[in-house]
Structure formats: C-alpha cells, structure tokens
Recover the amino acids of this structure.
C-alpha cells in the first residue's frame, strides 16, 4: 500500500507486525517532500498503534530507492527520531544509498538516528555506513 505519492517521492508499507513496521522510501526527500514524508510516516505509526496498541519497537526504513536527500530531508529524519525514540521505537535506516551515507557522515548523525531505545547504537563505520551483516541482510 502506498501511503503518499507527491511528485518525486513515495513511501510504501512493506510489512507490519505488532513489534515492527517496514517502510520503503522512493524518490527525493527534500524541502518539497519533507512534510509529506513526516505526515505519511505519522499516519503509518498511528495506524499501527490503532491496530496493535503501543507495542511497536522497530521502524525499518529501506532507503535503497532514495535518489536524493537534502538538509531538510535530514531534518525530517531527525524529527522522526525525536518522535520514535521516546516511545521506545528504534529507527533503522537500511540499504543506505551513497548520498544518504555522505549526508550522515558530514553531519555525524548516523549513530544518533539509529540509536536503540535502550541506549545502544548500531556500529557505524567512518563513512556513516553500518558495519557487519545488519545492512545487507535486513530490509
């Protein structure tokens, strides 16, 4: 199900279960689409809470289809993290394209964005990429 389809950007729900939601991002996350991104993800989280209650612990975002991310797009990801983290939800940015890796490396936000609700963080390399198997095997 596609949640929102502004020009050049869409989010699709891949799968959901009581403890996890998997979303796929496509297109350009920038000044023009950041608000729509936050609205669409909020709708997905609200729908999940209505269906399952407050048991969500993992939000996986497949970023392979993300063609571009600007500073406003990064700001939207940071806003999402500010919503999910206090609720005990860990944000996972999977299959990060090179432009997302560069933005995360330049800003030093990779570990902050993916910090687990229990205070641990995914291991991030010097270029902002995840180390180990998690990046290549999770969606």
């Amino acid at each position: 199900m596609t949640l929102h389809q502004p020009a050049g950007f869409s989010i699709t729900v891949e799968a959901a279960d009581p403890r996890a939601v998997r979303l796929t991002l496509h297109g350009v996350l920038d000044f023009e689409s950041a608000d729509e991104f936050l609205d669409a993800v909020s709708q997905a989280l609200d729908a999940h809470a209505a269906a399952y209650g407050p048991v969500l612990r993992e939000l996986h975002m497949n970023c392979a289809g993300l063609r571009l991310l600007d500073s406003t797009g990064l700001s939207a990801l940071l806003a999402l993290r500010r919503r999910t983290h206090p609720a005990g939800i860990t944000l996972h940015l999977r299959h990060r394209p090179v432009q997302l890796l560069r933005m995360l490396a330049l800003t030093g936000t990779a570990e902050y964005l993916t910090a687990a609700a229990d205070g641990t963080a995914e291991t991030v390399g010097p270029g902002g990429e995840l180390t180990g198997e998690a990046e290549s095997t999770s969606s």
User: Anything to note?
Assistant: The mean pLDDT is 85. The longest helix spans residues 34-52. The chain has five helices and five strands.
